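B., you asked whether I could sanity-check this one before it goes into the benchmark set. Here's the sequence:
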Amino acid sequence: MTSPKLLLPLRIPELGPSLGKVITGTGRAPGGLHLDTLRYRLATRLIEDAGEARRLAGREERHAAVAALGRTAWLEAWEEAVSGVAHLLIARIGTRLEAEARAVRMPRSRRRRLELNAAERRALTARLGSTGASLIPALDALEQRAGPALDASALERAKVEAWQDALKTAARRLEAAWLELEDAIDSEAERWRQVAEDVARWRKPWWPVVVVGAVALAVAVWLGLVFGGYLEAPGWFARWWQGVFGR
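And here's what the prediction gave me:
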């Protein structure tokens, strides 16, 4: 009769040091956006996930503990952060374009065409989200090392340590993704700043004014010539004049 395999306890490493700037911030306001609230939310979510994983591991719920800090948890946290950043940036872009359009007295119908449509909003969000590309390989490695760690015995400590290292690597990749996200915000803000400057240079076209003015001037000259006796009034004009003024 064989004795049951003694599994090595799962120890969840502290992620704070590896999250780096996600915890401490960069001191920047990319694109004029203040991201502290979103950054805190991202860091808090992952730290809470780690706390839940420790609780589950302490109860020997190994699969649930690993899942609490698995691939899905990291991706959902990242995607939530990107969505929040995109929402802030889109709102700021819209406010800037609207302000510039109002300043140059752009007609409302034309101003509405400046609003980012659904496709533009999705594209902007996708560009921001792509900064997390470096996170994906780290999450793949984390997923691959989770299985061996679950079944690691006291003689297989290296398997648990490999999983712990993968967690720290994922945290470092998330920090790198956040830094790239801030750079991407600056790039997007610059792109839309140029659009706003184009809006600020907009002027109402002069040709309608010129055409109307030319027609009015021609009519005034013609009337002057008619009333001055230099031109004979056409029959229709004489009848209209008599019908209106009675003479």
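One thing to flag: The CA atoms of residues 98 and 166 lie 46 Å apart. Otherwise nothing jumped out at me.
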